[in-house]
Amino acid sequence: MPVKFNVKMTAEYMYDFMLYHNYTHMSGLMTAIAGVLSFAVFIQKLMDGEMQACAVWFMCAVLFLVISPSSMKAKAKSQVNNTEMFQKPLEYEFTEEGILVSQEDAKAETKWDEVTKAVSTQKSVILYLGRVRALILPKASMGDQYEEALKMIHTHIPPNKVKIRHIH
After folding, report:
1. Sign of the CA dihedral running 145, 149, 151, 152
2. By three-state DSSP, how is residue 124 classified?
3. Which candidate, 75, 80, 113, places its Cα nearest to that of 96?
4. For the purposes of burial, counting CB atoms within 10 Å of the CB of 127, is it exposed (0-12), middle (13-18) or buried (19 or more)?
5. What distance in Å separates the CA atoms of residue 93 and residue 104, rounded to the nearest whole number?
6. What does the pLDDT look like over 74-114, one tens digit per residue?
7. CA distance 131 to 76
8. Whole-angstrom Cα distance, residue 96 to residue 26?
9. Strand bridging mode 117-120 / 162-163
10. In a designed cystine with 3, which of 74, 94, 104, 124 is the match (CB 3.0 to 4.6 A)?
């Protein structure tokens, strides 16, 4: 039986996706590690009374731990506001063959074997269709179809490609 739900993409869901995508890849992890290490050096320099070095390391920590995620949030908002596809709801339909995405007269189908990875965040289920393409499926948009959608995902995607926590 098909599973259908509508998704209205928001900056909040896009930011959730961007945080996950960024901080689960090496560059994002390195940014977070650099931020934590910069903060540790800041504390050490503060304790040593080296105020000039302290200021530099504090600014580095702020850059990595505050400004980077803040700019990502602004980018998410801009992407949602400036992408025509996100201005109207998308209808998703999970079938035995794949995932049908439609919006007004436009339709696109993705076969289940094209999904390279399925993961979840606190707010969404993400189906990767390659390294840079993904379907972002907010859990709230799935509503009472959430459990059925997860069953379809687990049925049609190999277990080694599915990393979904069942938190709703």
Report:
1. positive
2. strand
3. 113
4. buried
5. 14
6. 999 999 999 999 999 999 999 999 999 999 999 999 999 99
7. 18
8. 35
9. parallel
10. 94
- Phi then psi dihedrals of residue 38, to 5 deg: -60, -40
Q: Helices (H), strands (E): how many in the chain? A: 6, 8
**Tokens 């290490």 correspond to what residue?**
37
Structure tokens given for 2: 């098909």
pLDDT of 168 reads 53
Contact (Cβ atoms closer than 8 angstroms) between residue 130 and residue 116: yes
- Read off the pLDDT of residues 61-79 as tens digits, 9 standing for 90 and up: 999 999 989 999 999 999 9
First to last CA, the chain: 22
Q: What is the dihedral of CA 62, 63, 65, 71, to 10 degrees?
A: 120
The residues spanned by each domain of the chain are 3-9+84-163, 13-74
Indicate the pairing of strand 98-103 with strand 90-94: antiparallel
**DSSP code at position 116:** -
- CB burial class (10 A; 0-12, 13-18, 19+) of residue 71? exposed
CATH level 2 (architecture), domain 3-9+84-163: Roll (2.30)
